[in-house]
Amino acid sequence: MNLLRTCLTALVCVTMAGLPEDASAAGLARDYTLKLKTVSFRGTRNSCLEPTLLYEGIPLFTVNTTLLPTFTDAPLRNLPNGDQEGRVKAPFNGSLLNWGQNNFFFHVSTTGNGDYCTHSEDTVDLVSGDLSRRLFYITRNGQPFHGVAPLTMDLSEINPVLSRSIAELEDAVKAELYRLRQLSDQLDWARQQATQLEALQAELKQLLNRPLDSITSAELEALLARYSAVPSSVRSRLVQMLADLQASMDELRAEIDRINAIFRQHMQDLDGYVMPQPGGLDVHDPDTFEPDLGDDAVDEVEVPDVSQGDDFDETQDPYAAFAQQTLTELNKTLTNGVVTDRQGFQSMVRLWRFNQDVFERGLKSRVGVSLEEWGAFHSAQLDVLTFIRVFMGEGDWFHDSPVRENTKALVAYLEQRPESAAQAQALKNNLNLWYDDPPRTFEQKLVLDTLDALFGGYRSLEEGAASEDPSIFATLGNILEGAVVATKAVVGIGLGFTPAGDFIDLCEVVTGKELCNPWGDDLTVGERMLSGAGLVVGSGTFWRTVGTAVSAGAVLPIGKLSALLDNIKGLTKGEKEDLLVRLSEKAVTRVDGMTSDQILKLLNWSLKDADLNTLAKRLTGPQLIALSQFTMEAKFLARMSETTRDLVKQKGTAVKSLQSVYKRTADEVRAELVGKGFGRPVRDSSGNITGWLNQPFTRDGQEFWMHPDHSLVRITERTLDVPYPHLKKEITNLPGTYDISNVLVKVTDNNKIVPSTPGTDVKDVLVDWYCEVTSVSKQHIIDKEYELHDVMERIWAINTHLKL
């Protein structure tokens, strides 16, 4: 059984965080506290009651006509026998008390219709300093409790300062009257003063028999003016008493304001979701995305005028009448106890909330308002609030809303950001239209998953993502605008038809559904990564933080994207965008752990873009690098004759020692060749080499740089087959020769030995290696992917014709 909590029957209970729960600061009147201790016999009698407040600030007590907010006094205590003890308190200022008869009302029940299984003992004490009175001692066995405890209280206890001032004034008047009466038979002025003092006595008696809330400052000023000629011994006491009485009236007003502030917070929780949509929202289709229901679409409710200061008549209670009309209209939005017209419900609450503010301002503007009228106002307000809270809970969300707690937290977060507050209100308004609708459940999930990611995006700002990519601010704003449209579309035309731009892109990344359509194609990891890069390409931190906020299905693409962006963060935003376009959806998933320089070298120097994407179907980043670096050199050597193998391993030291020509100019390479002894041979008439010149032999547009150790380097401006300046590194059968018939092998940029010409050896070795590292059978390649042989030949050509 769910744990049940103590609360006023059908009471609207809301969290009162940050409100002043203690009564007014020390003043003339005493501060009092009603303290409730409840022991629920959970261990000894299987009571189902958990003795805690459902929400802070609920009124369990009424003093005369004033409802008192109640707060937790001590943590729930588990007793050794399994029973539980809860303590709550309702602090208030003594200015609420009558000088004489007072009534303390106590109302307690168990929520969730749990009274039938409640077995508890409740004690209520009235406490002020060292004074304590027991008001209630009850046991509940399967029923709620509603009762009243009358208590007569003297002014000397409630407000000792005012009581002393009154007593001192009375004593002064009596003493002066006694003196004057001794003289009155002989002096007319003595008789006149005695008559004035008797009149003062009568007025004071009448005044002090009235409740504080009925006395005005103007009355006190007028009284003081009428008796300006009384003897100084009396006037000084009169001035002090009236000052204390005025201070007591101010305390009463402050106490009413304190209680009003708490009950106002109950309603302020309802302010958020009833705000209108933000202006300027481009939804592209005004016929589809209509504005929210306005006030003119709400049935009229007659609003009473409470600004006039007529005496309050409980038989003609305007607040109760307005509350009843409001409840009637709210009931029209229900079907079988469920809110089906959610927009109408929210609009009606907006109207009610506005008028409650009007009522409160009207009451505060009047010179004097009785506690009875304030009590009627609060009681009527709670009647409506009670009804609303049957359907809405903390944070103003419908109880049956499918919206997640994390989404609610996102809305609350956005409401605190000035630049997004309006969109947050609209987002909440739209989300509050949702209900558990099976045909829409999958669409709702897509949107909620995307909103989780959006929350992560905003949190990335705290991690410094904007310093990596300042455009993130604008992107988040665009996604949020799209979220407002999408959340409305879920209850309208459908998410798949939503013109929501960046929000749809983020949804693709998070959910893997094309166009965020529940019936759309499933996107590959690479496609999801590219959608993400289209939103934010400048910050790995952004996506890493988003990755902590999403469900498991989105972790892989987002994790890969954040790692990739971290690895290429040295590039400009434009360079990153170009790089990702070249990688395409296959290769982008295969470059884990590779730096931007390694990736660009693959694309710009080692592989054609199309070939990279073909190979990336199965090869990882490190494997792609291994292929471009021809780490399978031993397989090539194994296919050569022993004579050739021995020669190329022993000779060609000079060409094998050259630095990488990647990103180097032809002149830089020529300088290195000269330094390592490359040039051309000098021959005698018999053709024998007699010396060497540090100059190349030039023929047909090529430079031939030879070396005595059989090394050969050819530099060519461009050819039909290789339309860019390039260099070939080779080892020849004889030193000082350059004709192709003497070339035994070629040497790659990282100085690996490969065959000198394309052919079976090149294709077979590279395809064999590919099959080994990917576990794909060679027969499958022959039968299904034979074009891979041509890819491998192109790789050989690119890596033996080195671009300058």
From TrEMBL:
The organism's place on the tree of life at top rank: Bacteria
Signal peptide: 1-25
Coiled-coil regions, chain positions: 166-210, 235-269
Keywords associated with the record: Coiled coil, Signal
Protein name: Pre-toxin TG domain-containing protein
